[in-house]
């Protein structure tokens, strides 16, 4: 009986055998602790390689070492995806403008290769083989398949490689093939930044399920009270950064510090508008003549980058990429997306940055792209003056006060007093000569205030350099009509003159046209100034009172005539 109980069941033996064979057959996960034992010879010493896990979700392992003063050696190890693998070196963290080493070994080793590609855009026909900015050392490249992993080896001639790297995998079963060696769109990718000296890495941007940034649907608002916990290493100390909200309406946060006597470090944080963000440094507060740092990462991570632009004018073709008065430190620019926000970092070589700053963002879904990298007109912008010493900013400076003064003067002059003068002239003629003197005095006062308002408008336009051509044109027409009315008053014929009725028709109709255009331009100006509904409601109430009075007086006038 006991022997029967001790005898193992055939089913149990089968299960144990299956489990044992499964665990024995399961390969140990490849990592930086695994020995690098390749069956092929490598043209450089591999004993002192730095090793980083650069893409945990896809088990990408990067080994590298500075072999000599101007030579860097790399080995990228990845699972065999039955497609190409790639490592791109980017100046700003984006795909466009980067140069990539791409390797592949077809299933069963039927074919394989390794090439450099230049990413001139995000479509396959813009990815050019055998082009790029990498100085690849001759006969240093090869790729091999071993234990279901690809090992891609290459050496670069450079004093220090770009620190912003992009890793990608292609679609299963699709390989570059002669004669074009065209590269199909990646199946998945991730962007990282490496501190080569410290062998540190942080993820900045990814696609698909492996994304460590865009895969998150939660949005955390940045503030000066929150810690700056970026998942990428920066090239400067961030512990003593000054911080201030520079555009509350759009959630823009600026952090900065004077790193050394002539080095200033900046980090601009803003919600990702699915377009570019920009910070401009202006000598006078206006856009024209300013130099701007512009960065972008599309919401799906397909494109990204940073550039300096010089604004020679207001139209897109007058905004010139890769030019400007800012001395940007080499390899200091970086943009990353984290928790639905963009973080744009850069360093400037200057003893004191310009204090007049302009912040802007572009239209949704529109990005600079190769080859021109033209910048679309901004969707919105704001200007501030920053006191670097105290860490305070102000948007209520001269331009802001002048904008409000311009609006109030024109509302009072053209939009209220001129209308009041017209009402008195039409409905109070029995109070002769009081009506005439009151009409002339009020209209003259309204005209003077209107002139000051028009002049302030021209000064404001020179400061802000915004495109308000229609508003300006209407203002000039209103001003000309006002001048014609004053001239008509000086040339007013006597009552008994035969031409008096023609003068009356001219004077009255010109006045009506002026009032209609003035009202329209005032509401349009309030919209351009983004003053909100308060100004619209306030002026609307004044107009309602004036027109109610006019209708009442007109009714009385008609009944008196009957």
TrEMBL record:
Residue span(s) of domain DOMON: 58-170, 250-362
Membrane-spanning ranges: 84-106, 408-428, 434-461, 473-490, 510-526, 533-553
Domain Cytochrome b561: 369-562
Subcellular location: Membrane
Keywords, alphabetical: Electron transport, Membrane, Signal, Transmembrane, Transmembrane helix, Transport
Gene3D superfamilies: 1.20.120.1770
Database matches in SUPFAM superfamilies: CBD9-like
Signal peptide span: 1-25
Keyword Transport: yes
Gene Ontology cellular component list: membrane
Pfam families: Cytochrom_B561, DOMON
Annotated protein name in UniProt: Cytochrome b561 and DOMON domain-containing protein
């Amino acid at each position: 009986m006991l022997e029967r109980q001790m005898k193992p069941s055939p089913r149990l033996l089968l299960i144990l055998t299956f489990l044992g064979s499964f665990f024995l057959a399961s390969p140990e996960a490849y990592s930086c602790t695994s020995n690098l034992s390749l069956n092929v010879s490598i043209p450089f010493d591999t004993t002192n390689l730095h090793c980083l896990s650069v893409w945990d979700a896809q088990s990408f392992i990067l080994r590298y070492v500075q072999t000599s003063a101007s030579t860097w050696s790399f080995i990228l190890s990845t699972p065999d995806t039955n497609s190409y693998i790639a490592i791109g070196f980017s100046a700003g963290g984006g795909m466009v403008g980067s140069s990539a080493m791409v390797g592949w070994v077809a299933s069963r080793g039927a074919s394989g290769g390794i090439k450099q590609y230049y990413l001139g855009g995000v479509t396959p026909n813009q990815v050019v083989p055998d082009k790029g900015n990498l100085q690849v050392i001759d006969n240093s490249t090869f790729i091999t398949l071993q234990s279901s992993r690809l090992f891609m080896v290459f050496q670069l001639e450079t004093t220090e490689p770009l620190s912003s790297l992009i890793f990608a995998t292609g679609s299963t079963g699709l390989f570059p093939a002669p004669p074009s060696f065209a590269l199909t769109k990646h199946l998945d990718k991730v962007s990282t930044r490496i501190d080569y000296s410290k062998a540190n890495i942080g993820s900045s941007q990814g696609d698909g399920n492996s994304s460590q940034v865009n895969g998150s649907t939660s949005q955390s608002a940045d503030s000066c009270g929150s810690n700056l916990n970026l998942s990428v290493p920066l090239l400067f100390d961030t512990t003593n950064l000054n911080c201030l909200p520079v555009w509350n309406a759009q959630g823009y946060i600026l952090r900065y510090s004077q790193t050394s006597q002539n080095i200033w470090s900046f980090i601009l944080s803003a919600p990702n508008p699915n377009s570019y963000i920009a910070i401009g440094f202006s000598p006078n507060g206006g856009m024209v003549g300013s130099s701007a740092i512009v960065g972008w990462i599309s919401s799906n991570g397909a494109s990204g980058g940073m550039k300096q632009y010089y604004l020679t004018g207001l139209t897109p073709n007058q905004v010139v990429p890769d030019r400007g008065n800012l001395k940007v430190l080499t390899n200091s620019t970086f943009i990353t997306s984290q928790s639905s926000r963009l973080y744009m970092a850069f360093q400037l070589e200057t003893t004191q940055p310009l204090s007049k700053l302009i912040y802007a963002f572009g239209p949704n879904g529109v990005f600079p792209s190769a080859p021109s990298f033209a910048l679309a007109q901004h969707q919105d912008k704001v200007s501030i003056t920053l006191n670097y010493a105290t860490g305070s900013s102000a948007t209520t400076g001269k331009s802001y006060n002048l904008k409000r003064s311009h609006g109030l003067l024109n509302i009072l002059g053209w939009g209220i007093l001129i209308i009041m003068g017209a009402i008195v002239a039409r409905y109070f003629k029995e109070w002769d000569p009081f009506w005439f003197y009151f009409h002339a005095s009020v209209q003259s006062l309204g005209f003077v205030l209107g002139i000051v308002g028009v002049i302030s408008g021209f000064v404001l336009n020179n400061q802000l350099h915004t495109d308000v051509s229609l508003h300006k044109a209407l203002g000039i027409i209103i001003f000309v009509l006002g001048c014609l009315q004053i001239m008509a008053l000086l040339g007013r014929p006597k009552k008994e003159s035969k031409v008096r009725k023609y003068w009356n028709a001219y004077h009255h109709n010109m006045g009506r046209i002026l009032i209609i255009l003035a009202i329209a331009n005032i509401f349009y100006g309030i919209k351009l100034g983004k003053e909100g509904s308060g100004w619209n409601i306030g002026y609307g109430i004044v107009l309602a009172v004036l027109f109610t009075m006019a209708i009442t007086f007109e009714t009385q006038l008609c009944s008196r005539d009957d």
